[in-house]
Amino acid sequence: MVSPIQPEPFRIRMVEPVRVPNEEEREEALKKAHYNMFGLASKDIYIDLLTDSGTGAMSKYQWAALMCGDEAYAGADSFFALKEAVKDVLGFDYVIPTHQGRAAENVIFGTLVKKGDIVPFNMPFDTTRAHIFNNGATPVDCVIDEAFDPESDHPFKGNVDINKLEKVIIEHRDSIPLIMVTVTNNSGGGQPVSLKNLQEVSAVAKKYNIPFFIDAARMAENAYFIKMREKEYASWSLADILKAMMDTADGISVSCKKDPLVNIGGMICCRTEEMYHTLLPRVILFEGFATYGGLAGRDLEALAVGLREMTDEQYMAHRIAQVRYLGELLEEGGVPFVKPTGGHAIFIDAAAFFPHIPQEYFPADVLSIEVYREGAIRGIGLGALAFGTKDEKTGELKLPKLELYRLAINRRTYTNSHLEYVAKKIIDVYKRRDQVRYGLKVKYAPPVEGIHHFLAHLEPFNL
Ligand SMILES: *Cc1c(COP(=O)(O)O)cnc(C)c1O
């Protein structure tokens, strides 16, 4: 059953024209891109659902705030506007701006983690995983088992399995510099973490005296799911739930290109002066001075407004309904995807979509190619190519449990009818799935673990 459409809670007064390239142009574009979606040019794409990162539309209030940017190198008014918004919306006393989320990761992991360390997670996002590896440490997934079952409709599939977490902590007692939980769990299908679970993780962290950080890129979406699915909080405002989530953590790492509604930006927030000063040297080395961290003053202003806008309940209700609507349309067409639909994206189960393509030939990336062919739509494979790891001894590819293809919904950017077009095209691919009989070989991969899918050159071969 498809729910009634939830109309957009905004008007569009500036438009960005887009065109649909013809079949020949698409084929040419695929070749030029080495069959990697990251290699496609935006002009060759009609609907771009590669990522919801930095691709949203700013409000008129954010555009107006841009004009108020104070570009002082140190102590700019714009920094204090951000600091005030962080305190009001999230409750943290300290904020360090960074140029985006992975820069916050570089500062946090580069400072707190040393070689041989273990970092327990529900599941880390790909750049987070890469940063941990790059510092010689290892992330350990402690997410609940339901996260790996695309058919399970557990309401909080991003939750940490507290038993798994304690076991890891007891086993590696002295080599755990921090615990981190990603909300929502991007790598596991944009699935939320319950407030109860965050409180439990926080209690475990306190018990063992380990700092607890949240990767809070999608904190407002997560808060909305808590409101919808965790009974005790049904009558709470989104803003209060978000604050309660933040209260569980010692600090957060944020890609502000997600929920905070800006096109570029990131930040670290923390509670104590000690943590703030521990992190600052690496900010100066890699980002810039403590009060701008790689961003212009105007960016900080837009971010301060975006932080306040992300807890708007009508906006968030529409956003989540849009994702659900796309899911319902795909469900009608029989397309297998991760249930229940997450906050920012639909994750199609590419292993079930193409059961005849072995995982080591990257079915999720084959699907991304086919969907582009069909409708000039760009999504991205998040499976063996993105998350496969090489066994250090044997050199063999260790395959991840999930083989997903993601369609990320940009914030306030596409209308419901755009999504109807997307659903139709994907269902069309699904109808001809048996005729798709090829796999992909990696012709080039960068020599850095964890970032293969961004830069790989691929080549189709017939199965
Ligand atoms: C996007 C993202 C990051 C990395 O942030 P960037 O702004 O892309 O550098 C980290 N964690 C999560 C959960 C993300 O979604």
Question: Could you describe the 3D structure shown?
Answer:
By secondary structure, the protein is an alpha/beta fold. The chain folds into two domains: 23-52 and 312-462, Aspartate Aminotransferase, domain 1; 60-309, Aspartate Aminotransferase, domain 2, CATH 3.40.640. Helices cover 40% and strands 14% of the residues. It is built from 17 helices and 16 strands. The strands form six sheets. Strands 2-8-7-6-5 form a five-stranded mixed β-sheet, with helices on both faces. A three-stranded antiparallel β-sheet has the order 9-14-11. The longest helix has 20 residues, at 313-332. The two termini are 37 Å apart. InterPro entries: ArAA_b-elim_lyase/Thr_aldolase, Beta-eliminating_lyase, PyrdxlP-dep_Trfase, PyrdxlP-dep_Trfase_major, PyrdxlP-dep_Trfase_small. It comes from Thermovirga lienii (strain ATCC BAA-1197 / DSM 17291 / Cas60314). The modification N6-(pyridoxal phosphate)lysine is found at residue 258.
Q: Which ligands, by name, code or SMILES, are bound? A: pyridoxal-5'-phosphate
Strand content: 5-15%
Task: Count up the domains.
Answer: 2
SS content category: alpha/beta
Uncertain runs are none
Individual helix count: 17
Per the CATH scheme, the topology name of the largest domain is Aspartate Aminotransferase, domain 2
| The CATH fourth-level homologous superfamily of the largest domain | Type I PLP-dependent aspartate aminotransferase-like (Major domain)
Intertermini distance? 37 Å
Reported for the largest beta sheet, the result is: 5 strands, mixed
Order of the strands making up the biggest sheet: 2-8-7-6-5
Name the average pLDDT. Answer: 95
Query: What's the alpha carbon Rg, rounded to whole Å?
Result: 21 Å
Percent helix, as a range, is 25-40%
Quickly give the CATH architecture of the largest domain. 3-Layer(aba) Sandwich
Please identify the top-level CATH class of the largest domain: Alpha Beta
The count of DSSP E runs of length 2 or more, i.e. the number of strands, is: 16
Q: Judging from the principal axes of the Cα atoms, what is the shape?
A: globular
Family: Belongs to the beta-eliminating lyase family.
Cofactor: pyridoxal 5'-phosphate
Domain Aromatic amino acid beta-eliminating lyase/threonine aldolase: 48-424
EC number: 4.1.99.1
